[in-house]
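Figure 2 data, in text form.
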Amino acid sequence: MTENRGQRTEDREQRTDFFVCLLSSVFCLLTLSGCGGYSNTSLYPENVGTVYVEMFDNQSFRRGIEFELTDALAKRIEAQTPYKIVTSRDRADTIISGRIVHANESVLSTERQIGRALEKNIELRAVVTWKNLRTGELLIDNKMVTASASYSEWQSQSFAYGSTLAANSLANRIVELMEAGW
């Protein structure tokens, strides 16, 4: 009798192990088959092929940043998106434009004895618009984008160096905005 009980208990454990194994296998198969939320579609709108990057306006008192931002944005679009930059607005599917509304420099740290700035920060803000010229749809509608970068004159870095870093960071954020919505 005790042998039968032992056999029944062992049979139940084997069945339980089998069902646990079966359920975990089914779960793994469902996860790997695409039910996990993964997709291989493009991150960018597929109805766009070319982009014309218009020179950014500069409403700040720092001159030259608009050239750096426009150049950095064109290079980022070419490198990180499936789009091609065109030099003629007439041949473009879309146009991206904007204006720099804020360029500020602030001190991050100072030397203790004489109060001279050791490290400075540059913050850039721009308002960006991306328009589909074929449909008239605004893909990005007056979106505020902010980026900053730090530099140190003690390391032979100038305002120009810091503003170039900030412009590249801002261009990267604008390209991130160009991704299609989830």
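Caption note: The chain is about 40% helix and 30% strand.
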